[in-house]
Fold:
Amino acid sequence: MRYDVVIIGGGSAGCTLAARLSEDRNRSVLLLEAGPDYPDLERLPDELKLGHRQEASDINSPFNWAYLGQGTTEQKTPMQVARGKVIGGSGSVNGQVFLRGLPEDYDDWAAEGNGEWSFVNLLPFFRKLETDLDVRDDFHGIDGPIPVWRLPREQWLPVNEAFHQATVAAGFFEDPDMNNPDSTGTGAMPMNNPDGIRISASLAYLNPNRRRLNLTIKADVLAHRIIFDGDRAVGVDVESRGEMFIVEGSEIILCAGGIASPQLLLLSGVGPAAHLRELGIPLVKDLPGVGQNLRDHPLVTVELEPRDGVRLATVEPRIQTGLRYTAQGSESRNDMQLFPSSFTGLRAGDPLQGRSPDRPQGMRITCILKLADSAGELTLNSSDPREPPRLEYRYFETEWDRRRMREAIHLSLNLLEHPAFGPLVERRLSPTGDDLATDDALDAWLRQNVATTQHTSGTCKMGPESDPMAVVDQRCRVRGLRNLRVVDLSICPNVVRANTNATAIVIAERAAGWIS
Structure:
C-alpha cells in the first residue's frame, strides 16, 4: 500500500508528528516502530508506565536498543547507551524531566542560518505542547497534550532538601520555574509524570488519535533502508516477523533519533562517500555531515553511602530537584547542572545510568556538562541494519570541558560539607582522595567514569547551503534529495542545555506545518 507520509520511528518526535499530520483527514499517515506497541494505558507494562521504574533501560530489557558507546579513548569499559525500543521511544523509558533548552540555544541555531528555529518562533509551539499545572503566564501552555508539574517542597526526599539548603547557602538563586526563559539556580525540576505515570508522546499524542482512519501504526517493524528513484525517496525496505516488505510513500520522514536516523541514512547510501565505499554501500548522495557532530551531555557522579535509616527513593520521582549554574569564566549561561538522587532496591536508580544499581541503596550527586566543546561521531560497523553503529562520543577532549567538570566535582564536595548533609551521608564512595589529589588524577578519573545522559543529538545537523556539514535545511529536508526529511534531535546543530525530550517534541510540532 502507498501512503502520503511514512514516518520511521515511533518515539517522541514520531508520535507527535504522526498525530499532527493525521489531523488532515485527506492525508494518509503510516507510523513505523521497531519495538512493540501498547495502544492503551491498561496494557502498558509497569516498567514503562510507572515513572519510578527503571528496568526498561537495563541492557537486557526488550524495550532498550542497548547500544554501547566509547566515552573517551582511554575508557576501558564502554558506556551503556539506553534508547527506547517501544512505542513512545526513549520518552517511554526516560527520567521524565521536562526541561526546555535556553532561549540562547535556539537563537544560536537561528544565527547559524536556521532562522525558523529562534526561541521567539518556537515559543508558541512550546506552549502548544504542554499543560503547565503550576505556572500560568505567557511562557507556558494551559491546554497542551503533555502535563508539566513540579514536586512541592514538602514532598522532597531528604537528599533533595539538603541539596537545596546547601545550594541556597552557597549563594545560588532559588528557581521556582526552570522553564522560564531567564531562569537559573536551584529548585524543583519540571516533570511530565503526574500521579507517578510517565506521560510519553505515545500516551499524550498518539493514543487519543488512534481511531483516525487515515492513521496506521505498525509496530515490530525494522526499517532496513530507504528506497530511491534517482534523487527521490519513494519507499522503505522493512522487516516484520522475519519477512521483508516494501512500503511506499510520497514523503519519507525519519524520526528515529540521534542514533538510528543517521544510521539509516548511511545504510541507504546517504552520507560520507568514503565511509560508504568502505562498506560496499552504493552511494546515493555524498553528505559528509551524516553521523558527524555527535553532541551530548557527559556526566559523572559523586557516589555516597547513606546513613542507616535515611529515607531514600522508592516510588517517588527519581529526579526531583537540581541546580543550573554558569561555570567560572564561561560566557554561556547555565552550562552546568548538578542534581541529587537516591535509590533503594533493584528497580530504582538514576535513570541516566541506563542500568539497575550495582548496590541495594545509595545516594549521589550527578554532575553534567551541558554545553561541551567536544563532539563525536557515529559510523557504521557493517551494512547489516541489525548491527548497531559505532558510537564515539569523544568527551573531555578540550581543557575547557575538563576544567568545568572538575569545578563541578569540587562544587559538589563543597555542598556536601553543609550541615544538612551530616545526618544523611555516612561517607563518600567516589571519587576517592587519590582521584582528587591533582587535576591530572581527577582528569584520569573523569575519562574512565564518564557516562552519557542519553541525549545524543546533532548527527544530521541542519544548516544553510554554505555549511558543507549540514545534512538538512531548516525545514528538515535532506539536502540534494527529494521527498525525504529528518525530524528529530539529530537535526540540532548543538545539544540544548537541558534534558532533550521537550525539544524533540517541539521539533516535531514546528516541522508539522511545513509538510504538505
Q: What stands out?
A: The chain has a mean pLDDT of 97.
